[in-house]
Design a protein that fits this description.
Order of helices and strands of chain A: HHHHHHHHHHHH
Helix content of chain B: 25-40%
Helix content of chain A: over 70%
Largest sheet of chain A: none
Distance between the termini of chain B: 25 Å
CATH class of chain A: Mainly Alpha
Number of strands of chain B: 13
Number of domains of chain B: 2
Largest interface: A-B, 22 and 34 residues
Structural class of chain A: mainly alpha
Distance between the termini of chain A: 15 Å
Order of helices and strands of chain B: EEHEHEHEEEEHEHEHEHEHHHHEHHH
Number of strands of chain A: 0
Radius of gyration of chain B: 19 Å
CATH class of the largest domain in chain B: Alpha Beta
Strand order of the largest sheet of chain B: 9-8-10-7-11
CATH architecture of chain A: Orthogonal Bundle
Strand content of chain A: under 5%
Number of helices of chain B: 14
Strand content of chain B: 15-25%
CATH superfamily of chain A: MetI-like
Largest sheet of chain B: 5 strands, mixed
Oligomer: heterodimer
Structural class of chain B: alpha/beta
Chain lengths: ~250, ~325
């Protein structure tokens, strides 16, 4: 029964969408969007756009993750590192990737690197923040207990601090991946002829292709959902599960 | 062309929120002159880009707009009730390359990267026309879509080898000293049409007089601009104002003067043959998928009944 719940919510919202969109000059109906997606599948462009976006998001997000984890752990553990880096992180964090576009073009040109850089920027900071607060918030009781057993150094780190922080870190990774997809439209303003963000922009520039605009939105949404399902599997690891009071 | 846009609210004598005309790029001197000369006709609000302006027009939130000609053809074809009633300006597009680049003719760009605002922009048609004239085929140029304000930086960073845009984004790089003009529309396509004044049908039906006055004043502003260099400077001054287009005065002045026919305003009449050519190029570029009947998207009656009005906008 509960498995049907999300399907029901989706169907209900789609019905509302259909009602709201009928007779609108711009807003396409779900049917028109489906036809739009079908036409993209038929001429093979959908696969091209999806792969291009996945490729850029994977690299941008991947590099962000690789750099955010060590920096976050450092900032969470060392008061000095936190004092040193926190102001910069907080200053750069709220700046929209759109504002970075001119600099991205200057540094990385026009192509795949610029969008990757913009995705990187967007997803890097939330993950630094989550990681550092995850490490920072490991309860002192755990540390005392570990110290009583003589656990110090690297072992303390790998056996107490990382597992203690992992649930928060994984939430940060989920948020980071969400943000990475959130900015794909802005990031692909500097992409060449491919990507779901490009598809949306290009269809807006066209006369009346709002079916394809919404098709791009739907695809980004669906991919976001699938990726989050994968990420949530990480939460089922026993290294993480210990912290949750409620089962799933 | 550019992403600049302006909206005119013509609240006087009208029951709805008013007539709004979105304005773009090098229509700005016309708009500036016209709005100051006849403030009772127009009040301007800026739009930030083409899609926003088009969406406002399609949704009927804007009753009139200066939009790209092929866009109006497509909208009219898809059943959006809009008609072209006048032009916004002529010429005013450029192909820019770096000053230190070896390119002398368009054929030299074979295999290179050129930025265009979007494949639906008239600048794209300009590029295609030059390609045809130089014997280049589809695929001989790598076209990159970039928003015009980002183009100068892209050229400076060698991310593209050339770019095609409406002013003032060509003049910007020229003024900053690292770029030169490879082609201007004035040299190869002097009757080039980019932005046209499009009006929604319900406004034409219910407020014919208002539309007629708007057309009269737009034509007058165009003629005024082309009768004296001093007028162009004055218009540049007005257009540069923060409350108008907020572009550097020197930049607009540069576009107005170097040379004086870089953009022209004196002849904003509608010529069927020119629209037919634009249509042919649009079909060829696959911007349009089928021919659109001339009378579906043009209403010549305002142009035919236009009568001269004198304008003399005060200097700011």
């Amino acid at each position: 029964m509960t498995r049907l719940l999300p399907v029901g919510v989706c169907l209900g919202l789609t019905a509302l969408w259909w009602l709201a969109a009928s007779g609108s000059p711009i807003f396409p109906t779900p049917g028109a969007v489906l036809l739009g997606i079908a036409s993209l599948v038929k001429d093979g462009t959908l696969l091209r756009h999806v792969t291009a976006s996945l490729y850029r998001v994977t690299y941008g997000y991947g590099i962000a993750l690789l750099l955010a984890l060590p920096l976050g752990i450092l900032m969470g553990w060392s008061r000095t590192a936190f004092t040193a880096f926190n102001p910069v992180v907080q200053m750069l964090r709220p700046i929209s990737p759109i504002a970075w576009i001119p600099l991205a073009i200057l540094w990385f040109g026009v192509g795949d690197l610029s969008p990757m850089f913009l995705v990187f920027l967007a997803s890097f900071f939330p993950m630094v923040l989550a990681t550092s607060s995850g490490v920072h918030l490991v309860e002192r009781e755990y540390l005392w207990a570990a110290q009583n057993f003589g656990v110090t150094g690297l072992k303390l780190f790998t056996h107490v601090i990382i597992p203690g922080a992992l649930p928060t870190i994984i939430t940060g990774m989920r948020v980071g991946l969400g943000v990475a997809w959130l900015v794909v439209v802005a990031a692909e303003m500097v992409a060449i002829n491919s990507g779901l963000g490009f598809l949306i922009m290009d269809s807006r520039n066209a006369g009346m292709r709002y079916d394809l605009v919404v098709a791009g939105m739907v695809m980004i949404g669906v991919i976001g959902l699938l990726l989050d399902l994968v990420m949530r599997r990480l939460e089922n690891l026993k290294e993480v599960r210990w912290r949750y009071a409620r089962g799933r | 062309m550019s992403t600049e846009g302006k909206r005119i609210d013509m609240a006087q004598g009208m029951d709805e929120s008013g007539l709004s005309v979105g304005m773009s790029g090098m229509t700005m001197p016309t708009v500036a002159a016209e709005s100051l000369a006849a403030p009772q006709i127009a009040r301007y609000v800026r739009y930030s880009g083409w899609p926003e302006l088009k969406e406002a027009l399609v949704a009927g939130r804007v009753k009139a707009a200066m939009v790209l000609a092929p866009m109006v053809m497509d909208l009219a074809d898809k059943g959006v009730p809009v008609k072209v009633v006048a032009l916004g300006h002529r010429s005013g597009a450029v192909i820019m390359v770096r000053k230190d680049s070896p390119y002398k003719t368009f054929a030299d760009l074979k295999g290179k990267r050129i930025a265009i605002p979007s494949r639906f922009a008239v600048d794209h048609l300009f590029v295609r026309k030059l390609m045809a004239a130089s014997g280049l085929k589809d695929g001989d140029l790598k076209m990159v879509e970039l928003s015009p304000p980002d183009m100068p930086a892209a050229l400076l960073a060698n991310a593209v080898d050339a770019y095609a845009t409406g002013e003032p984004f060509g003049a910007k790089a020229e003024m900053d000293g690292y770029a030169r003009v490879l082609y201007m529309t004035r040299d190869v396509w002097p009757t080039y049409i980019c932005c046209v004044l499009a009006v929604r049908q319900e406004l034409i039906d219910r407020h014919r007089e208002t539309v007629q006055r708007l057309v009269d004043h737009v034509l007058a502003a165009g003629r005024w601009l082309d009768t004296s260099p001093e007028h162009r400077t004055r218009a540049a001054r007005i257009a540069s104002h923060q409350s108008m287009f907020n572009q550097a005065f020197e930049l607009i002045k540069w576009v107005m003067e170097r040379p004086a026919d870089r953009v022209t305003y004196g002849d904003l009449r509608l010529m069927r043959s020119e629209f037919d050519e634009l249509m042919r190029l649009s079909l060829d570029a696959k911007i349009l998928h089928r021919p659109v009947d001339y009378h579906t998207y043009v209403d010549e009656s305002f142009m035919q009944r236009a009568h001269p009005v004198a304008i003399d906008p005060p200097a700011r």
